[in-house]
Amino acid sequence: MSDKTFTLDEAQSMLPALAGLVRTAIDGKKIMDEVDTEFQALAHRVFLAGGLLVNVAHYARRRAERDKALQRVKDAVHEIDAIGVQIKDLDIGLLDFPAWSTARQSCSAGNWGKRRSPTGTAPTKALPVAN
């Protein structure tokens, strides 16, 4: 991760762009999970039956879909990291924006802006993700 720090205004202005990247990563992760579940079910059926004829072309396409989704996830996560934002939880789109103490002082959220964070980061913000 870069050493970039963000003011509250900078972080809020980046949210639309970051929301697209997070959505891409979440969608890719869902595809990967679906394909992994499908392959696990196939392996289980083959094991229980002692062998099966498998539609190789179908599963090769599914493997290719998974590989493409994996690459999209890696690219999105790398781009988010290059911006200087930390991903705390990809499943819910939780991001962390490292911040200066001056950025916290510019926040109008009560006394929060006057206190120094023990971790040195601004509060995390979960991006709205439509399911």
Biggest sheet architecture = 3 strands, antiparallel
Helix content: 55-70%
Global morphology: elongated
The H/E string reads HHEEHE
| Strands, count | 3
- Helical stretch tally: 3
Show unreliable segments. Answer: 100-123
Tell me which oligomeric state these chains represent.
single chain
Beta-strand percentage range: 5-15%
* Termini separation: 28 Å
What Rg is obtained from the alpha carbons, in whole angstroms?
20 Å
Question: What's the overall average pLDDT, rounded?
Answer: 78
Walkthrough of the structure:
- The protein is mostly helical and 131 residues long.
- It has one domain (8-126).
- 57% of the residues lie in helices and 7% in strands.
- The protein has 3 helices and 3 strands; from the N terminus they run ααββαβ.
- The protein has helices at residues 8-49, 56-83, 101-105; strands spanning 86-89, 94-96, 125-126.
- Strands 1-2-3 form a 3-stranded antiparallel beta sheet, with helices on one face.
- The longest helix has 42 residues, at 8-49.
- It starts with 7 loop residues before the first helix and ends in a 5-residue tail after the last strand.
- The model is unreliable at 100-123 (pLDDT under 50).
Can you tag this structure with a few keywords?
mainly alpha, 131 residues, 57% helix, 3 helices, three-stranded antiparallel β-sheet, elongated, 7% strand
Q: How are the secondary structure elements laid out?
A:
Elements: H1 8-49, H2 56-83, E1 86-89, E2 94-96, H3 101-105, E3 125-126
Helix pairs in contact: 1-2
